[in-house]
Amino acid sequence: MEYVYLDTALLAVPNYAIDGNSAQELIDRVLHFSDVASAASDIPLRLVISSLAEATLWGVHHAPERDQIAEFMDLMEISDYYSPNDLLRSYNTILDRASRSAELCCVEITAFNNFSANPQLGPALAPAILASETQRILLNVSILNQLERGWSVGSSLNGATCTLYELNGDVTEATGPQAETVGELPSRHAGGAYVVPRIEALAGSAEHLWARASSDQELHFAITLGAIALRRAAGLNSELSTLRRFRLGPLLLDSLTEHGCCGVGRFSSATRLLLTQLVAGLCSREIGKFGRPQQEVRDFDSAKAFRVHLTKGKLGLRLMFWTAGENIEFANVGVKKALEIAVGGKGNFIELDLVNVL
């Protein structure tokens, strides 16, 4: 599971924008995270907001209320691009549907001082209470990552790239079921946190997502992000629609585990690369038909069977998969001397709907 702790300051009105362009960037980000908050529950991603988000926003008079949203858009001269009522619904969707930090954070920092960040956050963050909240969430996520990994910060800052911040701070108060792991307070803490403007920015961490994956859904998510990263690195269009539609057969995860092809297994990295290359349309390996003397065809959907080398040498692992049109179903991994393809079953597969997330 991946967790994105959304900075409370992104939900503030006004936000950290300094002009019309930066205001549009941050409002578009609110719309994006509103879609994420509404995404299907089987997606291995949780959007998290502070349990005190409302108290923080209303306490500094930066609440996402309709009149305040309209005034902010007028000030930034972007009223022609958005409806205050539609934006209000997006803010409320996040507040209503996102998970709360008290539910998911094993440690929650409630007070700190002597904060520093590299790169610096910039001097223009205001008001001071929101700037302090941004610092708190960054420091909190860096601690969470040391305990369980898989955490990043949903950015309230301008900029379209995923950025790693190196953070330092003295934690003076903390709560949560594992608060004692912070140490005797006050306690100096140093760590890192990725700040992501959109979920697809996690593509840069796809290899780590794959290594942590322990479910079919997590594998599917990691493969998708890895394929996006490959196309991006190749200078190609990396939108979700450019990827080959794929799904995972019911026996894939078991076969990957059995042959050391996932997690920290010997062939995990090679397997991840091959799967993502196939989905990205960038696989240069020779793909052969599976079945002798004739290629196997699945009865219930007429999908055709294929195989491709995963490893060379004595073991000689192969990846088997089915294709029907442009769709692909990864079936299983097997050794070359005892190859069988898992048939699967009609409707018995794993496929995530990520259209509103990526």
- The strand count comes to 12
Q: Calculate the mean pLDDT score and round it.
A: 94
Strand content: 15-25%
> Radius of gyration, Cα only, in angstroms?
23 Å
Q: Oligomerization state of this entry?
A: single chain
- Poorly predicted parts: none
Query: H/E element string?
Result: EHEHHHEHEHEEEHHEHHEEEE
Range of helix content: 25-40%
Content-based structural category: alpha/beta
Shape: elongated
Sheet of most strands: 7 strands, mixed
Helix segment tally = 10
Give an overview of the whole structure:
The chain has a seven-stranded mixed beta sheet. Strands 8-12-11-10-9 form a five-stranded mixed beta sheet. Strand 11 and strand 12 form a beta hairpin. It is of the alpha/beta class and 358 residues long. The two termini are 16 Å apart. Helix 1 packs across helix 4, helix 3 crosses helix 4 and helix 7 packs antiparallel against helix 8. The model has no long low-confidence stretch (mean pLDDT 94). It contains ten helices and twelve strands. Helix content is 34%, strand content 22%. The protein is elongated, with a radius of gyration of 23 Å.
